[in-house]
Design goal:
Blueprint: H1 2-15, H2 17-45, E1 56-60, H3 84-91, E2 98-110, E3 119-126, H4 129-133, E4 138-141, H5 146-150, E5 155-158, H6 160-167, E6 176-179, E7 182-190, E8 217-219, H7 221-225, H8 245-250, E9 257-261, H9 265-284, E10 295-298, H10 299-305, H11 311-341, H12 343-351, H13 356-394, H14 408-434, H15 438-444
Parallel strand pairs: 3-8, 5-7
Antiparallel strand pairs: 1-9, 1-10, 2-3, 2-6, 2-9, 4-7, 6-7
Helix pairs in contact: 1-13, 2-11, 2-13, 2-14, 11-14, 12-15, 13-14
Length: about 450
């Protein structure tokens, strides 16, 4: 029977090509709008390292101006970065399983074979645990050693894109390259790593919350050895960083991000007590004049306090689904008109012995074909829409383009929703035509 119903549906489409194209187009445009907004929203609201949500914590302390909060729109939140003095003291704790400090510094890569000009890069000055904490994959080699952190030794980790550009994608581990005109030994090359959003660093600067992670990576102490000031976000409230690098290290400026890995509740409580004891000690010395406000933020909390998903994104998502609803409502009206227009044929079939159920199934198959065609066209239009948003981002016209990548899960959700809602929308017209009495049409034939 299915084959018979399919033939009837195709004949129906040929009889009314205009109405068919109108319904397929309406469904497709509604689906495309949902695919674009749902994909962007899913990317922006997701936790890219959810499996470690309860063990990774961003550490913050309120060392800010006692007269005013760090962020007037969120007055209860402390600064999202630490001063050099506080960061290095907390880093000395042996409570965390792993711990990482990092800040962005400017740099240039040169000295690769056949490289005509230096490659300007934002470099992540960090500690070796950064890679293990955040499950950063390696294509070649691996992180540097603990001794390289303490040295610091002239070692460097390249991103895959940099290695492809400088060494043609070959295994470059063990080779040397110039970073800021100093010779560094390559110890590792990352595999593709693109967390969206860039959860570990949401403090501003660099490539943004949804940009490509900054690379290369060098041991954190090189930023202080070379007196490299931060290239990322830095906020000051007192006298500022001063004119010398030593004054920056001793200043009230916050410019270092710290994450710790605490596998259990006991370790988390111990480290928070460690932070509180340090706070009390510094308060006696005249610092930390604001109320106690130390925090260990889970990844999900960190994303939440930084408002990664803006109100505009939620509004666009609501508008997209409202647009899909309008398209489906219009499709219901057109389907009902189309089916009633062909009611005479259905009446003859009823008179020849077809049941109401068979009439209903026949028209439901037609609705399913419309949903399939609309979903296919909507998928194509959605892909083109994502490319358009990404192109607008590249030209600086949009803030969402970095998240506008083809997300299979988001697309599948949108397609499943569209297919189900379209078929559901066709239930009433299909049911309605099955309830029409065939006697009226038999008398007119």
């Amino acid at each position: 029977m299915l084959g018979y119903y399919l033939r009837l549906a195709c004949k129906s489409f040929r009889r009314t090509p205009g109405l068919t194209a109108l319904m397929v187009g309406a469904i497709a445009f509604g689906i495309a709008a949902c695919i674009v907004t749902l994909t962007v929203y899913h990317t922006m609201s997701g936790n890219p390292i959810w499996w470690k949500n309860d063990v990774l914590y961003a550490a913050t302390m309120d060392s800010w101006d006692p007269k005013s909060p760090f962020d007037s729109s969120h007055p209860k939140l402390p600064p999202d970065q630490l001063t050099y003095r506080d960061a290095t003291y907390l880093f000395g704790s042996d409570i965390p399983r792993r711990k990482a400090l990092f800040t962005l510094v400017g740099g240039a890569l040169s000295g690769a074979p056949g490289q005509p000009i230096a490659l300007s890069v934002n470099t992540e000055a960090t500690t070796r645990d950064f890679f293990r904490m955040f499950d950063v994959p390696f294509e070649y080699g691996g992180p540097w050693s603990s001794e390289a952190d303490r040295g610091p030794e002239p070692v460097i980790v390249l991103s895959r894109a940099e290695n492809d550009r400088l060494f043609g994608g070959a295994d470059s581990v063990g080779r040397t390259i110039l970073w800021n005109n100093l010779s560094f030994r390559i110890v590792g090359v990352l595999d593709t790593w693109y967390p969206r959003p860039k959860f570990y660093n949401l403090t501003g600067g660099g490539s943004g919350d949804f940009g490509i992670p900054e690379a290369p990576f060098v041991p954190f102490r090189w930023s202080t050895v070379l007196h490299r000031g931060p290239a990322g976000a830095m906020d000051c409230w007192d006298s500022g960083p001063g004119s010398s690098y030593e004054q920056l290290l001793a200043s009230t400026c916050v410019w270092i991000t710290m994450w710790v890995e605490l596998p259990g509740r006991a370790q988390r409580e111990r480290f928070l007590e460690f932070m509180n004891a340090y706070w009390a000690q510094q308060r006696k010395q005249g610092r930390f004049q604001r109320p106690l406000n130390n925090h260990l933020w889970r990844v999900s909390q960190w994303l939440g306090i930084h408002d990664v998903v803006s109100g505009d994104s939620r509004l666009l998502l609501d508008l997209a689904f409202a647009f899909l609803a309008v398209c489906l409502i219009n499709t219901i009206g057109v389907l009902l008109a189309k089916f009633l227009r062909g009611a005479a044929v259905s009446g003859v079939r009823r008179a020849l012995g077809a049941s109401r159920r068979q009439i209903f199934e026949q028209h439901l198959v037609e609705v399913a074909l419309l949903a399939l065609a609309g979903s296919g066209l909507g998928l194509l239009l959605g892909a083109l829409g994502l490319q358009g948003v990404h192109a607008m981002y590249a030209k600086g016209y949009s803030d969402y383009g970095a998240a506008a990548h083809f997300d299979p899960r988001g697309v599948l959700w949108a397609l499943a929703l569209a297919a189900v809602t379209t078929v559901a929308a066709g239930l009433y017209p299909a049911w309605r035509i099955g309830r029409v009495s065939p006697a009226v049409y038999l008398k007119s034939q």
